[in-house]
Amino acid sequence: MFSIYILTYNEEIDIADCIESAMLSDDVIVVDSFSSDRTVEIAQQYPVRLVQHAFESHGKQRTWMLQAVPAKHEWVYILEADERMTPELFRECQQAIQTNECVGYYVAERVMFMNRWIRHATQYPRYQLRLLRPDQVFFTDYGHTEREVCQGPTSFLQNTYPHYTCSKGMSRWIEKHNRYSTDEAKETIRQLESGKVSWRQIFLGKTEVERRRALKDLSLRTPLRPLVRFFYMYFLLGGILDGYPGFTWCVLQAFYEFLIVVKVWELRHASPKSDRVAQPETPTQV
User: Fold this and answer.
1) Separation between Cα atoms, residue 149 and residue 9, nearest integer Å
2) Nearest 5°: phi and psi at 142?
3) Phi/psi of residue 245, each to 5°?
4) What is the pLDDT along the chain (286 residues), one digit of tens a residue?
5) What helix, strand, coil percent values describe the chain, rounded to 5?
6) How many angstroms separate the CA atoms of 16 and 39, rounded?
7) Which residues share a beta bridge with 30?
8) Please, what is the Cα angle at 147 between 33 and 247, to 5 degrees?
9) Please, which residues have CB within 8 angstroms of residue 188's CB and are 6 or more apart in sequence?
10) Which residues neighbour 265 within 8 Å (Cβ) at sequence distance 6 or greater?
11) 8 A C-beta contact, residue 82 and residue 98
12) Interatomic CA distance for residues 276 and 257, integer angstroms
């Protein structure tokens, strides 16, 4: 058996279905960032543990969770509220933890958007570290999200999980990505000033994770990034095969890229007066 952490902030729409999918485990822990909606009320209706911790960033929240909230089992799975555990994935996780060969396992997401699996435009299979030993993994911040640091070998699972990325509506998606683009703009500037492109990992990376992250470093330096991203996702990845939802997804991702580009310009050309006006936003959990 393994424990399941669920990260939440204002997740009243998704939290019930998420918890119910996680109840395959006998140790479910909801880590809430002081939600202002009914998330906590709904979670308390289930036999789960609930703790609250003020959100600083995705990396810090995960590291705090792993270090300060002890799980019942040696292995844990990190689940976000708009994701679901499946019986097939749960059984594969149980099989994986029978050995001590790895300290973590990556799992591919299936992005569900407009009632359809966006298989092509999302670079499927796109892996995230989900099953891990909390004493061997911690997280750092990168842009709006996080990156894992594993103190040992990792591997990949075959089964996938659904990710309902727009389950709270388009307005919430736009508000969320407006915040994300600010963090990504700051990370873009840092990477352009001190980062570099690893061509070796782009062409010879051993895993999808290595190749994807190297491609992101390259994309930061690509002219006309929003147009390039749309062309890459819709035509090269095959988003055109995902129908109207796929087209909409590609347009939204290009728009998100455009927000990042504009905010990079804004940060680089900001005057002292505009710096005082545009104070950093209070960090909030997705």
Assistant:
1) 24
2) -150, 110
3) -60, -35
4) 999 999 999 999 999 999 999 999 999 999 999 999 999 999 999 999 999 999 999 999 999 999 999 999 999 999 999 999 999 999 999 999 999 899 999 999 999 999 999 999 999 999 999 999 999 999 999 999 999 999 999 999 999 999 999 999 999 999 999 999 999 999 999 999 998 899 999 999 999 999 999 998 999 999 999 999 999 999 999 999 999 999 999 999 999 999 999 999 999 998 655 444 445 555 555 5
5) 45, 20, 35
6) 9
7) 6, 50
8) 85
9) 143, 220, 260, 264
10) none
11) no
12) 25
Measured CA to CA in angstroms, residue 227 lies from 127, 192, 222, 230, 261 at distances of 25, 20, 10, 5, 12
Number of C-alpha atoms within 13 angstroms, CB side, residue 133?
Answer: 17
Question: Which residue bears the tokens 């736009």?
Answer: 174
Cβ-based neighbour number of residue 170 at 10 Å: 11
243: left (phi over 0), alpha (psi -120 to 50) or beta: left
| Amino acid letter, residue 179 | R
Query: Rounded to whole angstroms, how far apart are CA atoms 22 and 190?
Result: 38
